[in-house]
Amino acid sequence: MAKLKNIIKQLSAADYDAIYNSLIESNAEKSAYLLQSMRERQLSDTKIMGELEVNTNAYYTLRSRLNQKIEEHLLQQMESPRTDILKKVANINEIIFTKKKAIATATLKKLEKELLDYDLSNELTVVYKSLKKLHLNSPDYFSYSQLYNRHVAYMLAVDKAEDLLAEYFKMYGQYSLSGDETEKMGLGLLLKEMNNVAALYESHRLYVYESCIIIFHRLFVDKEETMDDGKEPIEDILDNVEKIFSQYQLDSIYYHLNLVFEFLKLEYYNHYKVYRKAEHYYEEVNDAADNLLTNYTLYTFPSQFLITKMGRHLRMGTETSMFTENEGVFQDFEVDKLDIPNYVVYTMYRAISSYYAGNYDDASRWINNLLNEVSLKKYPYIQLEIKVVLALQYCMLKDFELFNQLINSIQRQIRLLGKENCEHIVLFTKILKTAISEVKTNKAQKLKTMGEKVGEISTPFFSPSSLIDFKEDFIGRISLR
């Protein structure tokens, strides 16, 4: 909510009036009231919900729609100058065929300057191609040919960088489910290739794309690199990118990529446990979580935010609040089931949120749907992780028949993969079997000891079981069963 309030307070008077009037004209009185309340009155969310007579889910939906309306208005204002330039590029042939050479050249030179300001490399190639033709019999022909060739090459470099970005985060998704060393090496090679492409030109756009990978790679792949390794510090990279975004405020790609770098700032401060600073960016990213998960898989691995979010709630002891919040945040969200890594993380986030709310039926439904809809044969460790969390739900539901069947399946899979590779899963199953056993002597203490041991084991892949907190509350609930 913090992000929406800040945006509304920073709107110019003209923008605020335009948005408010547009909402009134479209009969969106509640959205208009919400806009006015956040702009002019210091009311709590609870107070606003009471005055609007809406529940939490409806309030989240209302807030989301208002945020979308504001973004659409701001984007429209931002794109107007760009639209005018693109129209001029589309009319270049008309200029060449109807204007005298001197006028056509002057027009194209002015257009060249505007396109350079916006860094529109694709359109610049059209301008240079036309200038080259106009100067066929002039000494300037060679210089325009050179500019044309350079911008065609630069355009291809930008396209290559965008392809590398998408390929990197697709491979990272696979690595997050497998922890495979070969895929880790592949990520390193893609990073080096991006470095090589970015080094070809002094380009802020290539620098921004390269930064998306560099920061993420250092935080989640090369976790052991030191601060004095001669590389540009992450904080400096973030500052430089912010300066680029400020300089090119009318660039629509940068406008949207700002969310990616807010997310990276959150992950950076969270990684180094500077939680006070991380909290500011958490509010920003959490407000746009469904948008991040839906539209940014080509520029980052957005599901990492959900892992960070669960870790934050567990650290703050607020894990039971996730379930209610999800109903509003993800009300209109549609996950891409073909994107298996992001789908797995999202589904397990929803299942674990339900578990902490005590809704074990809902948790088991999420997990069973995942296992039925997606083949995880390529990712046996993640399949094992998912199954053991499902076994926990059966344990809580006292469905011991399904629990025993699933535990037998898990133990068979452990034997195939090797106990030494599944140490935390072995301990997890022991906790569950001890919890439902009839033995009462020192049961709570045994569960606590094993729970502490599980927490000490780390895995190179996404581990849903590690997000189950074996604290007193858990021990108290499960030991009664």
Write the layout of secondary structure elements.
Elements: H1 2-10, H2 13-25, H3 29-40, H4 45-52, H5 56-90, H6 92-98, H7 101-118, H8 121-134, H9 140-178, H10 181-198, H11 204-220, H12 234-247, H13 252-271, H14 275-287, H15 289-295, H16 304-316, H17 322-329, H18 340-356, H19 360-373, H20 380-396, H21 400-417, H22 423-436, H23 443-455, H24 472-478
Determine the strand fraction and express it as a percent band.
Answer: under 5%
Tell me the quaternary state.
single chain
Between the first and last Cα atoms, what is the distance in angstroms? 40 Å
The pLDDT mean sits at: 89
- The shape is globular
Kindly describe this structure.
This protein has 481 residues and is mainly α. Helix content is 76%, strand content 0%. It contains 24 helices and no strands. It has helices at residues 2-10, 13-25, 29-40, 45-52, 56-90, 92-98, 101-118, 121-134, 140-178, 181-198, 204-220, 234-247, 252-271, 275-287, 289-295, 304-316, 322-329, 340-356, 360-373, 380-396, 400-417, 423-436, 443-455, 472-478. Helix 9 (140-178) runs antiparallel to helix 10, helix 18 (340-356) packs antiparallel against helix 19 and helix 20 runs antiparallel to helix 21 (400-417). It starts with a helix and ends with a helix.
